[in-house]
Amino acid sequence: MRKVILSFLVLFLSTFSFTISFAENSLQVSLFGGDVVLNGNKLNLTGTEYSTLNYNGHIYVPLRSLSETLQGTVSYNEQENVANINVRGGKDSYKSETSSANSDDFFKLSIHSEKEVYQYGQDINIWSALTYTGKEEKRIAHSHDLFVYTLMDEHGNTYDPGETLALLKSTFKENDVYISSLQWIIFFGYNDLYSESLRESKTHLKRGTYTVTVRTTYADPEDIKTNRKLQTSIKIKVE
Q1: What's the predicted TM-score (pTM) here?
Q2: Which of 168, 170, 131, 128 is nearest to 149 (CA)?
Q3: Which of 101, 114, 130, 137 is deepest in the core (most CB within 10 A)?
């Protein structure tokens, strides 16, 4: 039976502390020096703009990082001072009009899109899942991002952010599932390279047909020079 396990691992607290001031108020906080682990995988917090804090014995994880790892989205309405979080939940929210999957001896990698055809400016909902199909516990080494998304248009123009150099180790047990959503930064990267229009939003795809590919590359921690790669693709259209 497929299951998604949420587990958070707290290792230790950094002794480095600093003061955050907001007008007349101030908080004495310290950086959290441990790891936050979701489904056996570390949250992507190191080497990014995100920081995890410890305040009065409570760990504060960046809202965007956690939401995106949970296959959700987060946005901030500056005018109303409201943070909006949307996380898929329940079997109905995982319905997709187009999907694709690929497997090897240990994992099944799948990619899904809520719609096959999107209207221009509409939010594009694409997510992927990596399911461990083995019986014995397995430990893997992988880059900072377990999933890498690439985008190719109908003319062959491709945006590929590539893997990061950081090497992480994660442990999978039978039926563990790691889920991640395609983020707007991929659309921004593609548009930054290929869009000539200054009027169009760089976070929206222009009209056309696109191939979205997700890949994961991993290795045995004892033999990191021998990589295994899984990838699979779907096509979507923006009208």
Answers
A1: 0.62
A2: 128
A3: 130
pLDDT tier for residue 94 given thresholds of 50, 70 and 90: low
The Cα 20–Cα 146 span in angstroms is 33
- How far apart are the C-alpha atoms of 62 and 32, rounded to whole Å? 12
Find residue 170's DSSP bridge partners: 140
Range in 53-57, 73-77, 107-111, 181-185 the model is least confident about: 73-77
Tell me the Ramachandran region of residue 77: left when phi exceeds 0, alpha when psi lies from -120 to 50, beta otherwise.
beta
Q: Higher pLDDT residue, 15 or 121?
A: 121
Indicate the pLDDT class of residue 6, thresholds 50, 70 and 90.
very low
Average pLDDT over residues 149-163: 93
Distance CA 221, CA 224 (A): 6
- CB within 8 A of 34, min separation 6: which ones? 9, 10, 11, 12, 13
- Cβ proximity of 88 and 211 under 8 Å: no
Distance CA 88, CA 96 (A): 12
Location of structure tokens 């999933």? 147
**Sequence-ordered list of residues with C-beta below 8 angstroms from that of 188, at least 6 positions apart, any chain:** 202, 203
Rounded CA-CA distance 221/171 in Å is: 11
